[in-house]
Amino acid sequence: MSEHFEALLKTIDTLRNPGGCPWDRKQNLLNAARYLMDEAGELVESALEGDEDGCEEELADLLFMTSFCTRILSESRQVDMHDIARIGNEKLIRRHPAVFGNEEAADTSESQKQWNAIKAEEKRAKGLDPEKDSTLKDMPASTAPLHQAYNYQKNAVDVGFDWPSIDGAWEKLKEEQNEFADAVQQGDRKAMEHELGDVLFSVVNVARWLKIQPDMALRKANNRFRSRFHLVEDEFLNSNKSMQDAPIEELEASWQRAKKKLGE
Predict the structure, then answer these.
(1) Is residue 137 part of a domain?
(2) pLDDT band of 48, cuts 50, 70, 90
(3) CB-CB contact of 94 with 61 (8 Å)
(4) Which pLDDT value is given to residue 1?
């Protein structure tokens, strides 16, 4: 490994050792894993914004957190970053027989089938029965709900559980929207939550048919809203006006100006 990476590992050792940083010394593996997730989210944000400098910085943070988690794990079992790299490399080579072995994969579908077959063999080697596994792949509790819904639907397609065309997905979405509207009209809050969940799940299904990642689409929508809203705030602040006192027509006009300024 490079001298810079070895230096990083030594820095982490210093932080964790007696006399090191109190904050770093008190962290356990669960806490560190949560911070790693935060850093992964920041990397996604930088990637969405096309900020390559930000991506570089966030990748460095991710490398630190991965190494930090490994150091904590090493305090209870015999493992270090060299082991982690070896395990990861061996897994990649084993699961890509079309690249590193004698298998062939004509497309991504075939490659995915090989990947899944090898994962099943790995489970059998551990004494588990992959045939008893659900078609729906387990995901961490921390998985974003939109991403979870998207993956569940992709899993279901593997056993033919899908509409013949996108038309069925559109019709299902309209059906769920009507049921949500009925629940709202009846004032049944439990039913509203139930039906809204079905609407969102159906929107994800349409996105899947269109090959759009719904969580990415929503992240980008959130970013657009934030950018526009900040411009509206700045406009009112520079005019010494209060947004709270402004009529909706004035707010909407400012919103449209913000969209135009952002080239949207």
Answers:
(1) no
(2) confident
(3) no
(4) 58
Q: What span, in angstroms and rounded, lies between the C-alpha atoms of 9 and 19?
A: 17
Distance CA 251, CA 33 (A): 42
In tens, the pLDDT along 103-152 reads 888 888 888 888 878 888 888 888 877 777 788 888 877 788 999 999 99
Question: Is 42 contained in some domain?
Answer: yes
Encoded tokens for 191:
């039913």
Q: How many residues does the chain have?
A: 264
Using one digit for the tens of pLDDT, what is the confidence trace for 170-197? 999 999 999 999 999 999 999 999 999 9
Q: What is the domain-level CATH number for residue 193?
A: 1.10.287.1080
| CA-wise closest residue to 122 among 95, 86, 100 | 95
Residues 122, 152 within the same domain: no
- Residue (of 20, 23, 16) closest to 67 by Cα position: 16
Classify residue 217 by burial, with Cβ atoms within 10 Å: 0-12, 13-18, 19+: middle
Identify the pLDDT of residue 113. 82
Domain that holds residue 228: 216-261
* Residue 230: pLDDT band with limits 50, 70, 90: very high
Whether residues 16 and 58 share a domain: the answer is yes
Residues in CB range of 142: below 8 A, 6 or more apart:
37
**How many CA atoms does the CB half-sphere of 210 hold within 13 Å?**
13
Give how many domains the chain has, as a whole number: 4
pTM over 0.70: no
